[in-house]
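User: Predict the structure for this protein chain, please.
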Amino acid sequence: MSAREAVDAPAVLVGFARALRAAGVDAGPDRVQALIGALDVLRPGVRSDVYWSGRLTLCGSRDDLERYDRVFAAYFGGAGAGSRAVRAAPATRLRVALRDAGPAPRTGGEGERDGVPAAVLAGSAEVLRHRDFAGLTEAERGQLRRLLAAFALRGEPRRTARLRPARRGTVDPRRTVREMLRWGGEPAPPLHRARAERPRRVVLLVDVSGSMAAYADALLRFAHAAAHGGRVRTEVFTIGTRLTRVTRELAHRDPDTALAAVSAAVPDWRGGTRLGELLRDFLDRWGQRGMARGAVVVVLSDGWERGDPEPLAAQMRRLHRLAHRVIWANPRKARPGYAPVAAGMAAALPSVDAFVEGHSLAALERLAAVVRGADDA
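Assistant: Here is the predicted structure, written as structure tokens:
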């Protein structure tokens, strides 16, 4: 099938919903069905109809709107994804159609870039989700950066000591009495309260050694999006021959500026790997003081250890006792015939709660689901 042929509309919309969920928008199956139903009534090949239908059916709160605009621009291509731009744009054909339909005539409007329909760009974004980072072209890397910029990462929710109004829970006597006084002392249904929930802290340890060179840029951009997409601060460290805390460098809103700051701060790009020693440094300096205690700790590494693997095994057991969950994302896990027989990976696995892939956008989406406790590996 050529780039100009029609693509499957439901598949494009389901892929769009996956990208929204990765960005933190609760675009569940019921909302996707509502979007498909709305586009059956409207015009599924018109950019403005797709934008507004998705905005009304997939967004559940005001916080979702900015994320929706960013994902729409990255997924469907073009700069005019915001409400102001779409309102002023003409009804440009997206060419979202069934596969047995003939190709639509070109319109040359905003929905096309270099003669390629925007729906084909969306179809290529769906294919890109499963491509290994190591095999991407420069153009595909640019599209990947836009999709990663819309990512969000939330830790698994935990109950706090604070109480909040709730429909169910224990009776809140103060609020109940105040409500009765509002009505002149008349009896009123009791009001309830429950413990509030907050996401757990997330700590990312990103391997930037030579064996991870093909994946380091994408994983650091994932870490940048994670640091900006949640309510709880995400801590990020790079590991290689040295341990470097890069949370401050990733505080820049612009991903390219943040990655440039990280590049200047990290002295051991594409060097060796001393996982056991660096994990001990992390626990002695940061983890024992509380950063790892009760947190979700994610190690993004291929597990190659230059030194003796026994110290790594000991430090992983120590980390497992401190953290709420330990997750290991290995980009090489997706390769055919892979087995965790490398000394470092084999030493670490007994202390890992979830062992997942980390080679593609779809793998990072699943990693995000595992971090927030929505999926178990």
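Residues 35 and 41 are 10 Å apart (CA to CA).
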